Amino acid sequence: MSALLWLLIAVPLGAGTFLGSAGRGVNRLAPALGVGAALVTMGLAVAAAFARPEASAPLLTGTRAGLAVDGLSAVMVVTVAAVTLGVLLFAAAEFGPDENRGRFFGLMLLFAGAMLVTVSATTLPLLLMAWEAMGATSWALIGYWWQQPERARAADVAFLTTRTADLGLYLAAGAALAGGIGSLRLDALPGASSPWLQLVTAGVVAAALGKSAQLPFSFWLSRAMQGPSPVSALLHSATMVAAGAYLLLRLHPLLAATAWAGPLVAWTGALTALALGVVAVAQRDVKQLLAASTSAQIGYMVLAAGSGGVAGGVTQLVAHAATKSGLFLAAGAWLTALGTKQLPALRGAVRRYPLVGAAFTAGALTLAGLPPLSLWAAKDEVLAAARAESTGLYAVGLAAAAVAAVYSVKALWYVTRPLPQGAEAGHDTERHGTRRVSRAAVVPLWVLAAAGAVLGVLALPGPASWTKQLVGTPAEPSPAAWELGLSAGVVLIAAGMAWRWSARPAPVSRAARGWVRQWLLLERVAQVLVVRPVLALARALAVFDDQVVDGSVRQAARGGLAVGRLARRVDDGGIDAAVRAVASGARGLGQWARRPQTGLLHQYYAQAAVGFAVLILIVLLVR
Questions:
Q1: What are 584-600's pLDDT values in tens digits?
Q2: Extents of the domains making up the chain
Q3: Could you count the other beta carbons within 10 Å of the beta carbon of residue 10?
Q4: Per-residue buried b or exposed e for 130-167, using 16+ beta carbons within 10 Å of the residue's own CB
Q5: CA 277 distance to own-chain centroid
Q6: Computed from CA positions of residues 206, 208, 211, 217, in that sequence, does the dihedral angle turn out positive or negative?
Q7: Which one of 10, 76, 172, 553 has the fewest beta carbons within 10 angstroms of its own beta carbon?
């Protein structure tokens, strides 16, 4: 069984590494190879969901790299593999041969492989490795068109924001070791001793909220829209943005082990669902609208994790993944065909491209939460758990559901309007439009739209719902009949009002619309509160390093040179002079001693006579 699990991970990672390394060398074969690898991964994921394999390998002393497919991860591996296959099918039809398709399909498969490791990891070190791989490949995918500075900067913002939050997982790992969890198994983390348990929980919560673009980290998702549409469809439906919510759902026992974590996570999710829903309503760019709605919809999953509705959160995750990936792909198809993603310029898009329009319409109605579609049932499961926790949470979640109907219907209203007089007005403002949509690209759109609709039937609330059976939580709260009716009524009223008033300007000032459209100025706030102080501190430290540390080193070097020069003077003028004087004296004595040595015998006799006479004189005087 473990071989099946290793193969599930190895196929996308191996194929992704090969395609990414080959690059343009496999440009013609890359779509077929990428789709083929995704298809094999899908088959392996389904097999793993039924077989529930486990695997592990030695990693560090006392720690193993563990993988397992249980009820929760079974849902996730199939969801990730299915969305990846649909997105790559679309990209194979729409991503032109002038692009580096080897690198693109390789990065997409590497990203999907990292997500599969994330959802099946049972130990924190392996989760961290996959988490980091996801972040790195997402940076490369968002900045895929790196030759354009704005897109490269957007990738940097998204990467640095999520990386800042990701430091929480390192904090959690260190605190878990200090708290006695030497194995670093995820299911053992709630057993950490106090106060390390609080740090473990805080680190996990921070990393998850950052990855899932929840308040206050939401703004990075807006920047991520600079990537290609297939990237947006994959990263922001079932993979990267959902990873944080999945981690919170997986570690709900850890949240429950502390008194503060559950309420904090639940309220963060609820407020994100409401606030980012308002941001979505204000958007005029369809990809920005979908991005803000992603943060809002992920907010429901986070709300479910905080309030104990794990099954409802999983249902929301799966339904949202199918719906949102299809909507992003439809937006990408229109961007390719018309050269714009501005809603006013997309009027008549449904009529002009009815195949794409049908899929977009189904997705938008599902995103609106209209009954009996999937997100209506999923939201009511989440709201039932929220109501059991707090009436306030339920009220905020219900208000967010109404806002979801507004932004979904707004997008649908624009694309279904009759063609304007100047039908080409606003087109080709972002790229040259091809004025066509490949029929092959429409197939995954229809499949994903149908999945979004069918899941509404499968996710009908009650203890027998498929997610409760899979996750093993039949005792979770289920919505009462009046709750189902109330949410349906609220959504239908909000949708009707949005359809009627979509053409009217919002009754708020232009300045208010501006800062809401700019994602509540969250990036600007982060610049003021975090980026600028950190850069100022870095500059101050650089000055300190240059002027104090480096200055001290330079002064020490100068002092050493001065001492060296003084030592040289002492050596040259003292020691060497003395040595030269001794040598000169010895040389002079040698010259004096050499003078008597003339080689004449009579002089030697005379010298000897003088010597003896001196010696005799000395002896006589001494005595």
A1: 888 888 777 777 777 77
A2: 123-517, 528-615
A3: 14
A4: bbebbbebbbbbbbbeeeeeebbebbebbbebbebbbe
A5: 22
A6: negative
A7: 553
